[in-house]
Amino acid sequence: ANYGPNPTCKGCLSCSKDNGCIRCQHKLFFFLRREGMRQYGECLHSCPSGYYGLRTPDMNRCSRCRIENCDSCFSRDFCTKCKTGFYSHRGRCFRGCPAGFAALEDLMECVEGCEVGQWSEWGACSRNNKTCGFKWGLETRTRQIVKKPAKDTIPCPTIAESRRCKMAVRHCPGGKWRRPAKTKDKKKKKKNLMERAQKQHSIFLATDKTSQ
Fold first, then answer.
1. Which UniProt keywords apply (predicted)?
2. Residue 142 shares a structural domain with residue 205
3. I need a labelling partner for 77 at 20 to 30 A (CA). Which of 154, 166, 168, 182 fits?
4. Is residue 118 a part of any domain in this protein?
């Protein structure tokens, strides 16, 4: 029967004009729909978003998921699908995956990520495999991969990094220190300026003699 604005009493064992379905057939789930101050019963093959099917000897019911930001759940405290923008992890929903876990964007799930150890101390400052003879060099530190990720598509964080450093020993013992190229350029520029000044002075003297 159809009671006007009420849902059709399809699948009901008993139905009320004011309250809709009161009791459902054996395989269906009883869902109590609320619309403002009014509520009425429906008999469904599967529960709507935010609910899960709870089977009991008395009557199967749709029970609300109690997990925040959950779209569908397996039980009251275990979410199987989170709302858009949230990652599923061990039956819960997160904006971002917990520490030690990586996000699978296509499935919106958190899986075990790549674990790395602590950084080592910074290595010796060197350049061209030498620890002397230059003013500046690079120093490097590393860390080891402790646990590989569960899926190959998840990248590990960087395990080596370098930074600029000033060498403690600028002159190599027993070696001849080579002046940096920048200093050579300055010396060459100064020499060119001197030669140009001397040439201009010679032209000036020659012009002065001619005028006399």
1. Developmental protein, Disulfide bond, Glycoprotein, Heparin-binding, Secreted, Sensory transduction, Signal, Wnt signaling pathway
2. yes
3. 154
4. no
Which residues on adjacent β-strands are paired with residue 14? 23
Question: pLDDT value at position 8?
Answer: 61
Residue 194 placed within a domain? yes
Question: Tell me: the pLDDT tens digits for 163-206?
Answer: 999 988 878 876 555 555 555 566 676 676 667 656 665 654 55
